[in-house]
Amino acid sequence: MPKDGREGWHGWDDYAAFYDWENARTVGRRDIAFWQRLVEDHGGPVLELGCGSGRVLVPVARSGESVVGLDRSDNMLALAQRRVRRAKLGACVRLVRGDIRALPFSTRHRFSLVIAPYGVLQSLLRDRDLRRTLVSVRDALRPGGMFAVDLVPDLPGWEECERRVSLRGHRPGGQARITLIESVRQDRSRRLTIFDQEFIERRGRQRRVREFSLTFRTLSVPQMVGRLRRVGFRLERLAGDYVGGSWHPEAETWLVLARRPD
What we know:
With 262 residues, the protein is an alpha/beta fold. It has helices at 12-23, 32-42, 57-61, 74-87, 127-140, 221-230, and strands at residues 46-49, 67-71, 93-97, 111-116, 141-151, 161-170, 177-187, 192-203, 206-217, 234-239, 254-259.
């Protein structure tokens, strides 16, 4: 855990206002088809951990399967609700505020597929929190159900910096211009990467500044596989990109697919 006592979920309510803007310039939609194929292959019901603004949730729900999106941030869930409403998917999507370490579902409502896109498990900063989450996911899955984990591998490689301009651009519609000024800190003994974010939003002569920090933890794929096996999962396969490429330590993406035994 960082020395300031912050948890991995801290900062996400503030981040919600800029999440879609930043992700459109980074990950975009390059992972969406992968999650859609998983849903086609495994069916529903589906649970997304850390659904955020619905970036993955809504395209997945277009499959017609029942999908539950869980997030701890009220601000993120408000964005997801708006996205679901615009897509007219309210009949097959349910949004739940909750903690991934203790999933609020009974054994009568188990899932065929649980997905953890874009490094959401890396917001768990301690081993005990990761173990609690993996046990909770195992118990929420039907026998034979699949758990798909997406890890961001390059976090330890980010160079430490102070107040670097990382991104600039306009919100959709062009009415506001946003600048992201970022500082990066590495706590290598704990495998943590901390991003101190300063978003500056300008509308004409108005200027608003939002500051917060986001913290992520990196485990290697063998470490993650070991933790999955220790709580009863069976490794199904590893992938190194979103189109089926083989996994290797230098792969651009680390995807782990594990199954709850029958």
